[in-house]
Write a structure and sequence with these properties.
Number of helices: 10
Largest sheet: 6 strands, parallel
Distance between the termini: 65 Å
Radius of gyration: 20 Å
Structural class: alpha/beta
Strand content: 5-15%
CATH superfamily of the largest domain: NAD(P)-binding Rossmann-like Domain
Number of domains: 2
Number of strands: 11
CATH topology of the largest domain: Rossmann fold
Order of helices and strands: EHEHEHEHHHEHEHEEEEHEH
Helix content: 40-55%
Bound molecules: NADP nicotinamide-adenine-dinucleotide phosphate
CATH class of the largest domain: Alpha Beta
Length: 294
């Protein structure tokens, strides 16, 4: 068996084309979706991610503004900016690029973002809503994985899903989202004994550990769907995921590559969350107008 490749670039293009229509519809109602991105310090990877996000915004017609602070900035300066952005009606999404420098309490900063503008979905309200099964903003990376499965017509309901990695931004929300879609989900992490005894059971295996070659072919069931979230830079400069792509490709039914898999989907879902936020803003504004008009 040779797996079909889940082409994240292609799915991202299709999703963005669909959502571009919704940006156009909002424009006709006098609303342009707006995203504010806050970046502190000069982490080169963060600079690249922010560049990708602002370019994707421009391409689809979202207004984006970058707020950049030097490494030594006190936390209060960022909290003050977030308070102003929370009140700014031209901004429908606020994103703080992580990691923040050590003098910051990241949790306090994320909590300062208004729930209705938390397009990354990291505010505790949105985390809790995800657990309760009714999130406002699904976190972008697992949301992107779910979208890849759906666009590839891969059934989720009743499937055995194993998520490798239990971080707050990928593994845990991924598990919650697929459980909501009626999968039977198992999460593994660094302390999991004999990882293979879990991964071999997976109909859908989502790997987000940040360890090159963590998952090898004998750990994967024949015909499984393998989604590789990992991004690792090897000493020779190559970018790879967490799975042995070439060997697993001969055994799986579907596999997502790195690069060109989950990465483009993460940025795409940020656009989706921002557009949806602007749609909610427009609907609330129109409802308020109707009330005022009696
Ligand atoms: P993270 O915060 O470092 O979390 C990694 C998780 O993997 C942790 O839960 C860790 O367990 C677990 N883990 C580590 N080694 C393991 C092992 N040998 N067996 C089982 N579990 C293991 O990383 P993250 O932010 O979730 O990101 C994970 C990977 O995805 C990274 O490579 C990152 O670059 C990539 N990523 C990609 C995108 C994208 O858009 N494509 C977006 C976000 C992240 P413990 O909790 O027990 O330590």
């Amino acid at each position: 068996m040779t797996a079909k490749i889940i082409d994240g670039n292609d799915i991202a293009r299709r999703v963005r084309a669909e959502w571009k229509h919704r940006v156009d519809a909002l424009r006709d109602q006098g609303v342009r979706p707006g995203l504010a991105v806050i970046i502190v310090g000069d982490n080169p990877a963060s600079q690249v991610y922010v560049r990708h996000k602002t370019k994707a915004c421009a391409d689809i017609g979202i207004h984006s503004e970058k707020h950049e602070f030097p490494q030594g900035t006190p936390e209060q300066a960022v909290l003050d900016l977030i308070a102003r952005l929370n009140e700014n009606t031209a901004i429908h999404g606020i994103l703080v690029q992580l990691p923040l420098p050590p003098q910051f309490d990241s949790r306090r900063v994320l909590e300062a973002i208004a729930v209705e503008k938390d397009v990354d979905g990291f505010n505790l309200y949105n985390v809790g809503a995800l657990v309760a099964g009714d999130t406002v903003f699904p976190p972008c990376t697992p949301f992107g994985v779910q979208c890849m499965l759906e666009y590839s017509n891969i059934p989720i309901s009743g499937q055995n899903v194993v998520v490798v990695g239990a971080s707050n931004i990928v593994g845990k929300p991924m598990a919650m989202m697929l459980m909501k879609k009626d999968a039977t989900v198992c999460i593994t992490h660094i302390k999991t004994r004999d990882l293979a005894q879990f991964t071999i059971l997976a109909d859908i295996l989502v790997v987000a550990a940040g360890k090159p070659m963590l998952i090898t072919a004998p750990m994967v069931k024949t015909g499984a769907v393998v989604i590789d979230v990992g991004i690792n830079r090897l000493p020779d400069g190559r970018l790879v995921g967490d799975v042995d792509f070439d060997a697993i490709r001969e055994k799986a039914s579907y596999i997502s590559p790195v690069p060109g898999g989950v990465g483009p989907m993460t940025v795409t879902m940020l656009l989706v969350n921002t557009i949806q936020s602007a749609e909610r803003f427009a609907a609330n504004r129109d409802a308020a107008k109707r009330v005022m008009a009696g």
